[in-house]
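User: Please predict structures.

Assistant: First:
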Amino acid sequence: MEARSEHNKFWLNKWSSNAIGFHEDFIHPLLKQYWSTIDSAPRSNVLVPLCGKSKDLLYLRDQGHNVFGIEISEIAIVAFFAENKIAYEKIQHPNHDIFQGEGLTVYRSDIFNFPKKILPKIDVIYDRASLIALSGRQRKNYSDWLTTSTQSGCESLLITLEYDEEKLSPPPYLVDKMELAALYQDNWLITHLGQHSALAKGHQARENAYLLNRK
């Protein structure tokens, strides 16, 4: 519990101080490249955990899907709707808030304290910067959370990061193929789609794209 509290405080402080070098002000190229590998019907329900104010939400909505994000920082959520000129309604609840705009719903909540019963049936998960934002044991808790929040047939487009740990300190966290298998292989089929050069905090890194299929 203490580690989770510190994690939440860390990211809330990042948003409140505008220290958001991790935010990409463009649609991630690997999302565009690999989204077609997802066998999603029109109007699928797509979940984007720890979504920040990512423009990837817009891309997914523009593919004709219902997009649901979960984000702990209200600053990030309000900025997303304001910067993209999307009108929204805010619905307050005791331990979470719901921000609803056209084709988009973003929940303000700690993901590990999120009331899953309010989620619709999730068809697809898009994870570019969620798993790699979490440290140690939290990654196992996160993968378990996704497994228990989905049903057989759900797909996930997952992007992980590898880098020279002597040159770069986390976050983002390095997640290699061995750890990924330990986290997911019991409940998901894992397909490696490709590896690509990337930058992380100004250093050379490698992004790996995976397709996960819920067993």
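Second:
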Amino acid sequence: MKRKIQITFFLVLFSFGVFAQGDRVQGVWLTENKDSQVEIYKTSSGEFEGKLVWLEEPLDDDGQPKLDKENPERSKRTRPLLGTVLLKDFTWDAGAGEWKNGTIYDPENGRTYSAYMRLENNNTLKIRGFVMGMRFLGRSTTWTREREVRD
């Protein structure tokens, strides 16, 4: 009986560790071009999302907030880029050591791609967007962890 309790206790502790691993992606990330920051967070449904929280140049030539002009949905073309959710629906796969089944939105061309993410180390996040369900048909970007949102 004592042995069963020890095994159960170990399994419970191990499962908490596996779930905590998935939470490591949360935080503020500087994009590869170093011109924007994305905050990744866990939703109430347990999936991970990321929204644009800082732009090096948040205003257009007229001094107005930059808009999501390339969005394929006309109604969204007048919304500010700042605050736009770029990453959606990612789930942690402990076996693969990655967040998968998500999408990444590219506001520069208005397209959304299937994507997965993987930490190379605690401060480096590799994201790969791809098309037609084929991971080899796509492109990767590398983001760097930041301590806080820039001013």
